Every structure is written in C-alpha cells, then in structure tokens.
Amino acid sequence: MAKKNQTLGEFIIENQAAFPFSSGELSRLINSIRLAAKVVNHEVNKAGLVDITGAAGETNIQGEDQQKLDVYANEKFIQTLTNREIVCGIASEENDDFITISGQKNDHQNKYVVLMDPLDGSSNIDVNVSVGTIFSIYRRVTPLGTPVQLEDFLQPGHKQVAAGYVVYGTSTMLVYTTGHGVNGFTLNPALGSWYLSHPDMKFPEDGRIYSVNEGNYVHFPQGVKDYIKYCQQEEGERPYTSRYIGSLVSDFHRNMIKGGIYIYPTTSKAPDGKLRLLYECNPMAYIAEQAGGKASDGFRRIMDIEPKELHQRVPFFCGNSEMVEKVEDFMAR
Ligand code: P6P
User: Fold this and answer.
1) Which residues make Cβ contacts (< 8 Å) with residue 181, sequence separation at least 6?
2) One domain for residues 172 and 237
3) Which of 89, 241, 264, 304 allows an S-S link to 148, with CB 3.0 to 4.6 Å?
4) Domain that holds residue 323
C-alpha cells in the first residue's frame, strides 16, 4: 500500500514482493533510472545559465565540449543503465540502432531491455518550457547468454513489465507503473530524494481538456476535425478547454491529473503521425491504462500494435477512456 511521503527507495522495497519473477533486478533498474533522472534534472535546471542548450559539437563558456541536452541526457541514461549490469540492450530516440550491453563478464545474462526518449520536447528548453524523459521496459525474448536482438525490442506494448516518465517541470517528478497502478514521486533537489507525492494516480471521472496542435487542423482526418468541433460546441454545463504545451510528458501529466485527452493524429507533414510507438506511445499507453484511461491510434489499442521497426510512428489518442472512445466514434464514421 502506497503511503504519502514515503521515499521511492522505501516504496520499491515495500512493493518488491508484489512483483512476481523479479529477483530485485527490476527494482535496481528503476533505481538506476531515478539516479540518471537526478543528474539530468540538474543540467536541465541550469540549462539557461551555462548555455548548454547550444548545438552539439561546439564548446561552451567553460570550454567544455558542448552537448545538446538530449545528447547529454541520452548518454547519462545509457551510462547509468550500463553500469548497473541489469539490461542487455537499450533503444533510444537518439540512436539509429539499438545498443547491445554484454555485461562485465561479456555473458549477456541480463534479462531486461529499455527503450527510451531521453529528453522529449527538448526544443522547449530554450524557451523554458517543461520537458521529459520517457522509458519502457520489457523482458528479453531471445535466449539469455546471447547478444540481444531486434525482436527483443519489437514487442507489443502489452508485454511491457514497467513504463514511466520524468517531467522536468516546476518540480521534477518520476511517474511509473509496474502493472500495479501508477505512482508519482517528487524530487526534493536539496536532499536528492524522491517522495511519494501522488499515490495511485487515476484519471478523474470526466475529462474536459483536449490537447492537440490545431495549427495542423486543415490536415487532420475528418474524424479529428469533427471531434474538435464537438468539443467546442456549447454542451451542458460548460464547453471543453484547449490546452497544448507542445511537450507530450507535460500535456499527458496535466491531463491525467485534471482529466483530458492528448491527440497527435496524422498530418500532411506526419502521414503516420509524429510520435514513436516504442518509446513514446507504448509507455504512455501503459501508464494511461493503469490510471484507468485509454490509448489508441484512432482505431486500435496502442498496446496491441505489433511493431515493425524501431522508430516507427503512429497516430496517438490518449487520455480519459470516454474521451478516447468518443473520438474513436468520430474516426469510425
Ligand atoms: P508539434 C516534442 O517534439 C513532441 O515529440 C511531443 O513532446 C509534443 O507533444 C509534440 O512533439 C509537439 O509536436 O508538431 O505540435 O510541435
């Protein structure tokens, strides 16, 4: 049972027993993610000061090799996950191919793979808007002791063993699920500890926020246009509210707390949608379903889609169940 203000460490130990098959490796994996998140948070929060947000390949005022924050975040998460000897492979938005981790004994005995978007929405850093890290964890399907294969990463979302995000916002939060509900931890930067601030997160009964980039309206499928008009018509007590930050993690996080739907449909520039199935849509879909919501590509459950390639994109409709079902009705017409 989650107790408010419990630390993340206490929470993991207390819930360790609740997670079958895990010999503590998954807990160590979550621990390594929280360590990397603290390091990235430190850099994100001072980005404006040391001009770290410049283009990669230049040197900053300290003469250090300048790294764009997403390159920096990518390296920190890969380094932490590699050092902890828990994963056999990593796929990242920042890397064309997956990374094989053989382990110190070079025996490929680690059983988990991690897929991640190390810093989603990084273009928002320069304008001081929240950004996030998104991660998704699977058990490998190819034999232990052999190098990880592409099929270990191309698993449907319903096979995830854990998923979560870090939102580097007005406060830094780690929100994750291992299939037993969703819990949110807030970082106390002074102590470097994470405290359980949002136990057992659930979408509220009714959602009234829709999040979509209406600048693409003319290119939307007719069903999305019809749904937006439905939201804008006067209906009952009050019409809906449009809120769009341009940072998936922030829009999703707000909608899970206040009730809403996030939509990134196909557009002319993104004929398959913009968001990536494996390390953006599937992890957010897992969290959404564990919080009582839904995630669809407009027609199918996101977590039932059989992935074909590492960086494939899909249309994404995610939030309160009845809002996702409503837009699916419009898409079906
Ligand atoms: P647009 C950020 O680049 C991102 O991947 C999501 O975090 C965000 O919701 C979306 O793209 C914004 O895209 O086309 O509306 O600027």
Assistant:
1) 2, 200, 201, 290, 291
2) no
3) 89
4) 209-332
Confidence band, pLDDT 50/70/90 cuts, at residue 259: very high
Q: Which of 167, 198, 229 is the last residue of a domain?
A: 198
Strands 209-211 and 260-264: parallel
Distance CA 226, CA 231 (A): 9
pLDDT of residue 238: 63
Report how far residue 227's alpha carbon sits from residue 246's, in angstroms, rounded to the nearest whole number: 20
Give residue ranges with CB within 6 A of ligand 1: 120-121, 213, 246-248, 251, 274
Task: Note whether 145 and 108 are same-domain residues.
Answer: yes
| Cα 316 to Cα 273: distance, rounded to the nearest angstrom | 7
* Banded model confidence at residue 21, pLDDT cuts 50, 70, 90: low
152 and 236 both lie in a single domain: no
Domain shared by 163 and 54, yes or no = yes
Same domain, 193 and 269: no
Substitution site in 166, 264, 267 for ligand 1 pocket (most atoms within 8 Å of beta carbon): 264
pLDDT at 62: 43
pTM: 0.93
Distance CA 246, CA 275 (A): 12
Cα–Cα distance measured from residue 115 to residue 118, given in angstroms and rounded to the nearest whole number: 9
